[in-house]
Amino acid sequence: MRRSLAPLAGLPLVLALACQKRQVDTPPQPLGPAETATAKASSPPSSPAADETPQTLEAYLAATPAAPPVLPPELTGIRGDDPATKIPRCVKTGWSYYQCDRVYPKQGRVWVRWECAHGDDPTTRSILCTRLAEYLLRGVGGPTDPVMARALLDRQCQPDDPQFRHNCHVAARSLMFEDPALALTYARKSCDSHDDSPIGCRTLLPTLEGGLSRRPFTLETVEGLEGLAKGDACTLWTWPESDGRCSARLACGERVLYGEGGSSLPCSPDGTAGEDMTTAKDGDPAIRIETDAVQLDDDATGRLGAFTLRGRLE
To answer: How many Å apart are CA 38 and CA 107, to the nearest integer?
Structure first.
């Protein structure tokens, strides 16, 4: 089951209430040259100036046009299974509603950047700046920009930010694979309060302090994934989330095949885990983790299309 990018500390309602002030059907406003490309569903994914990123975070945000962007309703990602996933609902929930970032990734990149640069509600602005950092890290709606993403995460994970513990938690989860040491620093900031820290601190901090379970494996069979072949080296990470459930991430090189936007699946004390629903049913591939093997399958509606792979765990 895919976990939404919604805030982990129960913040979607706050976002929804704050964002209801904004209207999607504002009169058309002229967009900047780079943003015009973003607004076209057939154009390369881009938020303003994404291809010529300014050298500083301040310049990057200052380059965002002041007028609220007009968001075209065209599909720019993968068609979802919830008919309620529409542009107005995505805006009202700060792109945290189910599958918004998958169905309308380009519009989401433009909107969260505009809210981060020009939003007038401090809580909404804080949360959406952190969401923009996630999009920049993962390449949602445009190219990746890890340097700008880390600058944003660091800025939002400060005690003077209205949502700094939540933001530090997102930063820790976002960087826990690429930079575990930095992720641990963010997690300690997020989890320093018994009353105010996100509930996810119960597992995130101990997991980072103890080290993620990281298991390399070799592909034995693969179908439907161009560029991957038998014998390729991949990695599986798992960590506990709550009683009977865990999260997982599977990547081959820099290509994340499972768990990029979060995950949650049933797991057992012996380390086996999995669920059989593909993207059409629950938003992400089916995964099966055995003591010595892992299998991943998805259908045609998934981000990578229909595929299957099986690997032997070391």
So the answer is: 7
Distance in angstroms (rounded) separating the CA atoms of residues 61 and 145:
14
Long-range pairs for 40-45 at CB < 8 Å and ≥24 separation? 40/72, 41/72, 41/74, 41/75, 41/76, 41/106, 43/106, 44/142, 45/76, 45/105, 45/106, 45/109, 45/139, 45/141, 45/142, 45/143
Is residue 65 within 8 Å of 110, Cβ to Cβ?
no
Q: pLDDT by residue (tens digit) across 254-312?
A: 899 998 867 889 999 888 999 999 988 888 899 999 999 999 999 998 888 999 999 99
Residue written as token pair 């569903």: 41
Q: Which residues contact 242 (CB under 8 A, 6 or more apart)?
A: 203
- Are 181 and 171 in contact, with CB atoms under 8 Å apart? no
Domains belonging to the chain, first-starting first, are 12-156 (no CATH), 213-313 (2.30.29)
The residue to which tokens 């089916």 are assigned: 286
Structure tokens that stand for 194 in this block: 């018994």
**Segment 192-207 mean pLDDT:** 92
Contacts of 83 (CB under 8 A, 6+ apart): none
